[in-house]
Amino acid sequence: MPDFPEHPCRIEDITAEVVPGKLFDSEHVSVRVKVTDDYQSVRYTVEYFIYPSLPVLGCQCRMISDVMPNIYWSHRRRFCQEDKKLYSSTDSFVSSSDVSCRYTVEFTGRTDYTDNVVIRHDIAGEGEYCGNILVATDKDSACGFAILQEAPPSAERRDFEPFDFKISSGSIISCAWGVAPEELSPGVEFSSNRSVVILFEDDMDFECQLKTYLQKRFPQIPGEASTVTVNPWGCGRFRSLVNRDFLLEEIKATSDVGATTYQIDDGWQGGGGLGELVINNRKMDVDFWQVSDMLGGSLDELIACFRQNGIEPGLWVAPSFNVEFEDYREFADLLYSFYEKYDICIFKIDGVKTRTWRSENNLRLLLEDLRKRSNGRIRFNLDTTNGQRPGYFLFLEYGNIFLENRYICHKWGVGYHPERTLRNLWKLARYMRSEKLQIEVANPGDMNEEFYINKGECLPSVYDFEYWVAVTMFANPLIWMAPSTVSKENKDVLKRMMTLHRREAESIFAGTVYPVGKMPDGETMTGFVSVSDSGVQLIIFREKDEASGKVEIKIPQMRGDAMSIEVVSGSGICRVIDGTALVEIPAAPGYLWVKFAR
Description:
Elements: E1 9-19, E2 28-37, E3 42-50, E4 56-65, E5 89-94, E6 99-107, E7 118-122, E8 127-129, E9 133-138, E10 144-150, E11 165-168, E12 171-175, E13 190-191, E14 194-200, H1 203-217, E15 229-230, H2 238-241, H3 244-256, E16 261-264, H4 275-278, H5 300-309, E17 312-317, H6 328-342, E18 346-349, H7 357-373, E19 379-383, E20 399-402, H8 418-428, E21 437-441, H9 449-455, H10 465-470, E22 476-479, H11 488-510, E23 512-517, E24 525-532, E25 535-542, E26 550-554, E27 564-570, E28 573-577, E29 580-584, E30 590-597
Parallel strand pairs: 15-16, 15-22, 16-17, 17-18, 18-19, 19-20, 20-21, 21-22
Antiparallel strand pairs: 1-2, 2-3, 3-4, 4-13, 4-14, 5-12, 6-7, 6-9, 8-11, 9-10, 10-14, 11-12, 23-24, 24-25, 25-30, 26-29, 27-30, 28-29
Helix pairs in contact: 3-5, 6-7
C-alpha cells in the first residue's frame, strides 16, 4: 500500500477584505481560507462573512475537483456505502456541556397544497433534524445561538441526506451544500448555501438579531418594500377575460383601489399558457414570449394607459425549467427588452423547478444579471406556491415572495380565508421580515359559498371586508382580484386602506415587525407590532370567536406611559401603562391599528 501523508490538505492562502455594500449584500468583512488537497486535486474555499455591530458569522463553501467523489450511488438505493457516515456538512460546532439544542424550525413551500408553513421540531437529544433554523441555548439562561441555513425548505432540497442538522457526540453539523455528489463535474466550481451563526441574549433578542441580519443580508432600494400589487389571476377567470379593452379597464380600476402596480398575468403572451410548459413540457423559445396578437402584438397602448393613471406595470413570466434554465441568457435579454422598451421593472417568476444545482445556479444567474443590468430597478416576485423552489431564505436579494394562490371562487384548493392568511403571516413573521412577503386579499364578490360549506368551514364573510384588507397592512398587500369587477363599496374600502398603507409602510418597515398575542386560531386576540427608532405601530385583531375583547401586549422598547396614541384605522381603545399596551376591541371580529409617539 502507498504511504499517505497524515494531513493531505494544506492551507494555501488566507485573505480578508472589506466588501462595500451593493445590490446583493450590505457592507461586510469577507475572510477567505483556501485549502488544497493535492492527492485528489480538490481546491476548497471557505468564506466567512462578518457584519459590523452584528453578532453574526456566515459561512459559505466552494470547491473545484478534478475527480469525482470516491463513493457510489444508484437510483434504487441512492448511496450504497452504508458503513460511511455521509453528509454534506458546510459548518460544524462542538458545543459545551452547558449548551442545550432546543428546537429546529422547518418551513414548507408548495402552498397550493399546505396550510402549515412553519413547523417547530423540539430537539430530544442526539439525532437528525429538518429545518432552516436550529436554536440552542445555555441550560441555565436564555442566551444562546441559532444557525440559519440560507437554503430552500427541507422538502425542496437535493442533498443526499434526509436531514438538515445532525447532532452527535456534542457536535452540531449544518448540512447546507445543496449539491448531491452525482452532480459534481470535474473542473467545475460548485458553491454551497450559506450557513449563518447568530448569537442572542433571549428569545426576543433572537428575533431581533435574525431580522436585523436579514435586513443587512438582503438590502432593499428605498421604496422597494412598500408596493401594493394587483394581480387579477385571483378572480379565477383571467384567461377568459384578458384582451386589450379588459386590461385598459383594469389599469384604470387599479388606480381606484389605491394600488401602485398592476401585474399582467398568464395570457398576455402569444405562445399559449403556463400549461404548455408544466403540462405539455413544451420546449420554449423567445417567440413564445412575444406579445399576443390579441393585444395588437405590442404593449404600447397599455403602457400609455399605465403612465396616464400613475400605475407601475408588472408582468408574469415562467422561465424554462424543463431545460434547467440553460437558456437564461436569452431569457434575460428578453426580459431586459421589456424593461428597455416599456419600463417594466417587476416580473413575477412562476413555474420554477430547481431540481439540480445547475438549474438553481442558472436561475440565480438570470435574476442576478437583470438586477445588475438595471442597476437594481428590475426586481422579482418569487412564487412559492408549487414546484421545487428557493423558498423563504434563498434569492431574497432579488425581490420578494409571492406566498399563496388562495382562491375564493373555485370549488378546489386550500381556499382563501382571512383566518388562515393571518395565521400564516403571523407564523412567518416570527422568523422573517414581513416586507418580503406578498399577502393576498380576495374579492368578496367572487366568493363561492358552496366551497366553504362543503369543507365545513365558516364563510370568509363572517369577517367584514375591511378586516380582510387589514390583515395585509404589516406586509406587502396583494390585491388578488380583477379590480374592474369589484363593487364600488369594496373599491372604496381598498382605496382607503391602501392609502393608509402607502402612508405608513415606510415607518412600519423601517423597524422590525414582530407577531404579538396568541397564534391566530379563530378565537384569540392577535396581531403585529413594528418597533423602530421613529416610533411604534401596533395592529391587533379580535377574531370571530374571541370572548373578552381585551389583551395586554408587552412592548419592551416602550418605556413608561408618556405616549401619544393615534388611531390609524379600526375600532377600539388603547392605553399604555409601564411599557404595556392595553387594547380593547368592542366587536368580534374587529381590529385596531394604532401608532405611538413620545
